[in-house]
Design the sequence.
């Protein structure tokens, strides 16, 4: 049986190349490491070839590429044999669409609003212009619709196994509405000149059987298709007759025939670029191939969670991670339903672990949701980084960034500009839907009908530009007090930038967003539209912030890349130790079971690359001087074309930080490393949307940055630069290693459940995805772990570049967590006073539960003790003592412990202790 207390999770990325069986083979290693729960990426059926699993196409079955039900059973056996639990990443917000693999989506394309699955998708059926009937835009074409049609890329095909017709655009299947089958058969029989043949007669008879609109209907269609496929010789006639729909430049009549047929479907084909302005189904961010699910619909919720419920009932699932909770219409309702499902499946007595992927902005508090223990831990990753960076160095880096960018080191203007760009391009269609809905609400009563659609759009745009977090959490009953204040404050900031006459437009917008328009005594407005608007705005602001902040501003504002992390603040001034303690005491009270992550599949760089870059704040003067020299050395490798240079000055600055973070120390920077940096540079440039972008790639600029990276990493061209880079990289790597030990120790001992991303037991110098999803050599890790039963810490410190130090310390920490489970899972958090000249370089605290306790002492800002990263720190150089009054431990006497004593092995320590008196258990919020 897996332990009742969740102590440590390990995230595995499952793919066709790393399936259930390969995950099962890793289980013994995870057990030896000290992991209590395997945390798997999505396991439901996803698009073929998916490298992440978030493009689920069928929630009701296991992914066959991972091994299907049988493979999952083998993984479950391995977990049970080693007493490990299972947590899965679950995607309630969206599914993969287009192609030919999602049965729900194909049914909607075939039947439109008559499909029972139409209620599962968030489609604005009436938005398509110049159409007599509603439909959904399919922006899947690589060319304009006319070009694709005339090139014959869109084909009408017949499936004799199903008795069905579909249009195909390469791998995309587009079912034809059965109401058009009669018309198709008549045209085909005529083209094949088969009216007098037996198959032709039977086809014509079938074609004329159903008269009237929308026939054959959904009940009649299966019979129609069955009879069609059973007609002897029909496939041959249809095969010949389909020539009438075979479009081509030299076949104008056939092209027009196919066009007319496609225009009478429940969908409209279009170029992929149309998605930005015309798409009419809710997507995951701006990804056309991921359509939003309406899990607020009870039937959709039940169908998508049936397999999850069965796994819980069978005791094969102990927890769930909910992906993109902010995409849901009503997360609170969803979490209540999920908790009810869990209780129905396993009863009230067993614990079930639920965390949500939620990105909190600075100073934002997590909303309470039923049954949720916390988030996946982005905010705690950033708290750890902020307490480890040197605030004094950040001030110096402010000036460096000011000189390089010619802009103030303030993030807000970057985010605001990025939001404008995203509103005008990537999410313009979603914003248009909201604007039109707001205008319809205004037009619904004479008191507000004079608010023009254009003015309302501008007012809503200002609101979105000034909205400071990802979303609010209104329900049908209205906003909470904090959400109301957030909306009102944002309205006031937006009003401050309005230069036209106000005349109540912002009051109207505020009341629509809070649903106060529906209060008794107010002029009557459509309750359905007002609620739809207010709740849809919430689903819009999350993707808006994500695309603007994470996927744009983070790739423009490069003051210190260690701070440019999901949920982070790139303009942070750091975190003092007292403030850090206060945050952790609050967490111990409110969210003691949430995850603590330092690397995930979504982080912008590996956890140890981040600590290296953070170390630049400890040597800002040397860093700035190095960059100045490197810019001179590498100037000949820049590409100049007209008025631009490639890379730009700010992008070049970003590249140097990236190189220091990812630079290999155990082997030379080979061709594979160069390719990794070039791939990262291309993605970073496109995400930044300055000189190039995904929508409009600038080939000359992209070639310029690719050439620049290749040349500066070529020893034959850049020997002097590479020598200087290597020298600084070793120093930064040592400082980063010390930061990493502190980061790892904090993650494992702070309130919360530490999560370990696959492979990060060795140094993690990866870049953003897909680089951080490369295969992991688990055999090497298991072999190394077996040789580290009795670690020689001093010896491991001398050979720190090989990563075995981190692996050994990880197991040591997890062994302590397993031995002191109640202390770390249920214990309170007590800051410990540090005295001495170097007190500010130490973070010390105790975790305690009853009489059991653990004393934690970690260091920070190591540059002064390592000659700026040139040598491993000597513990004698630290002048500080930790007050441990009230605690006793083997080998410690008195009320103080000197750092030289605590850090005799490594500049981090976790000491098992006892309290002088039993500590009354801290009251924690129970989340069942």
Sequence:
């Amino acid at each position: 049986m897996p332990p009742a207390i969740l102590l440590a999770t390990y995230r595995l990325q499952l793919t066709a190349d790393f399936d259930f069986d390969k995950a099962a083979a890793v289980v013994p290693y995870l057990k030896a490491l000290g992991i209590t729960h395997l945390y798997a990426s999505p396991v439901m059926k996803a698009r073929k070839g998916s490298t992440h699993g978030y493009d689920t196409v069928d929630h009701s079955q296991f992914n066959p590429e991972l091994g299907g039900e049988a493979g999952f059973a083998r993984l479950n056996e391995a977990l049970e044999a080693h007493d490990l639990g299972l947590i899965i990443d679950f995607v309630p917000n969206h599914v993969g669409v287009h192609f030919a693999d999602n049965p729900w989506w194909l049914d909607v394309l075939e039947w439109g609003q008559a499909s029972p699955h139409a209620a599962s998708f968030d489609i604005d059926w009436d938005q398509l212009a110049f159409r007599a009937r509603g439909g959904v835009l399919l922006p899947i074409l690589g060319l304009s619709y006319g070009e694709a049609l005339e090139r014959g890329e869109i084909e009408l095909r017949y499936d004799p196994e199903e008795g069905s017709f579909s249009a195909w655009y390469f791998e995309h299947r587009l079912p034809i509405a059965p109401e058009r089958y009669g018309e198709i058969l008549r045209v085909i029989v005529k083209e094949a000149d088969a009216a007098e043949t037996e198959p032709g007669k039977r086809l014509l008879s079938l074609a004329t059987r159903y008269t009237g609109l929308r026939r054959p209907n959904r009940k009649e269609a299966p019979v129609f298709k069955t009879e069609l496929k059973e007609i002897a010789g029909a496939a041959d006639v249809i095969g010949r007759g389909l020539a009438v729909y075979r479009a081509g430049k030299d076949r104008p009549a056939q092209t027009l025939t196919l066009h007319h047929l496609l225009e009478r479907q429940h969908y409209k084909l279009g170029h992929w670029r149309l998605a930005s302005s015309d798409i009419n189904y809710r997507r995951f961010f701006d990804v056309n191939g991921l359509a939003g699910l309406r899990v607020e619909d009870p039937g959709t919720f039940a169908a998508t969670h049936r397999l999850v419920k069965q796994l819980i009932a069978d005791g094969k699932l102990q927890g769930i991670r909910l992906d993109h909770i902010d995409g849901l219409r009503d997360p609170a309702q969803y979490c209540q339903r999920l908790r009810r499902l869990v209780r129905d499946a396993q009863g009230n007595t067993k614990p079930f672990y639920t965390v949500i992927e939620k990105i909190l902005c600075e100073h934002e508090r997590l909303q309470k949701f039923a049954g949720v223990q916390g988030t996946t831990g982005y905010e705690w990753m950033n708290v750890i980084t902020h307490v480890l960076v040197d605030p004094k160095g950040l001030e110096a880096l402010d000036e460096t960034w000011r000189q390089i960018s010619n802009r103030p080191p303030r993030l807000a203007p970057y985010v605001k500009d990025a939001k404008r760009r995203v509103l005008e391009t990537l999410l313009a269609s979603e914003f248009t839907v909201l604007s039109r809905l707001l205008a319809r609400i205004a037009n619904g009563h004479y008191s507000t009908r004079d608010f023009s659609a254009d003015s309302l759009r501008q007012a809503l745009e200002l609101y979105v530009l000034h909205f400071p977090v990802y979303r609010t959490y209104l329900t049908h009953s209205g906003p909470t007090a904090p959400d109301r204040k957030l909306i009102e404050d944002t309205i006031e900031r937006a009003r401050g930038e309005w230069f036209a006459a106000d005349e109540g437009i912002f009051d109207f917008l505020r009341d629509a967003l809070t649903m106060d328009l529906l209060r008794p005594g107010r002029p009557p407005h459509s309750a359905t539209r007002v609620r739809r608007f207010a709740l849809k705005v919430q689903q819009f602001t999350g993707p808006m912030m994500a695309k603007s902040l994470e996927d744009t501003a983070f790739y423009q504002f490069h003051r210190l890349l260690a701070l440019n992390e999901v949920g982070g603040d790139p303009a942070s001034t750091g975190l003092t130790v007292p403030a850090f303690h206060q945050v952790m005491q609050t967490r111990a009270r409110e969210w003691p079971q949430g995850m603590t992550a330092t690397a995930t599949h979504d982080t912008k760089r590996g956890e140890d690359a981040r600590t290296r870059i953070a170390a630049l704040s400890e040597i800002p003067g040397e860093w700035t001087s190095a960059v100045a020299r490197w810019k001179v050395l590498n100037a000949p490798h820049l590409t100049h074309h007209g008025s631009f240079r490639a890379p730009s000055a700010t992008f070049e600055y970003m590249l140097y930080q990236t190189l220091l973070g990812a630079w290999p120390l155990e082997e030379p920077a080979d061709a594979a490393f160069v390719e990794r940096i070039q791939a990262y540079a291309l993605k970073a440039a496109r995400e930044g949307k300055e000189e190039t972008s995904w929508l409009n790639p600038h080939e000359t600029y992209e070639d310029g940055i690719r050439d620049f990276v290749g040349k500066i990493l070529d020893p034959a061209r850049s020997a002097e630069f590479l020598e200087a880079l290597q020298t600084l990289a070793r120093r930064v790597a040592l400082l980063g290693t010390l930061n990493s030990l502190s980061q790892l120790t904090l993650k494992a001992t702070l309130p919360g459940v530490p999560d370990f991303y696959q492979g990060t037991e060795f140094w993690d110098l990866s870049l953003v995805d897909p680089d951080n999803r490369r295969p992991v050599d688990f055999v090497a890790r298991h072999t190394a772990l077996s040789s580290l039963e009795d670690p020689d810490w001093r010896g491991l410190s001398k050979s720190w570049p090989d990563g075995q130090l981190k692996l050994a310390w990880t197991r040591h920490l997890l062994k302590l967590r397993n031995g002191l489970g109640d202390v770390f899972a249920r214990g309170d958090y007590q800051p410990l006073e540090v005295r001495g000249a170097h007190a500010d370089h130490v973070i010390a605290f105790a975790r305690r539960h009853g009489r059991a306790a653990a004393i934690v002492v970690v260091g920070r800002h190591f540059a002064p003790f390592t000659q700026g990263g040139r040598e491993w720190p000597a513990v004698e150089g630290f002048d500080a003592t930790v007050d441990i009054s009230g605690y006793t431990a083997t080998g410690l006497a008195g009320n103080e412990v000197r750092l030289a004593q605590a850090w005799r092995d490594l500049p981090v320590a976790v000491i098992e202790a006892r309290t002088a008196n039993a500590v009354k258990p801290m009251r924690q919020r129970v989340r069942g």
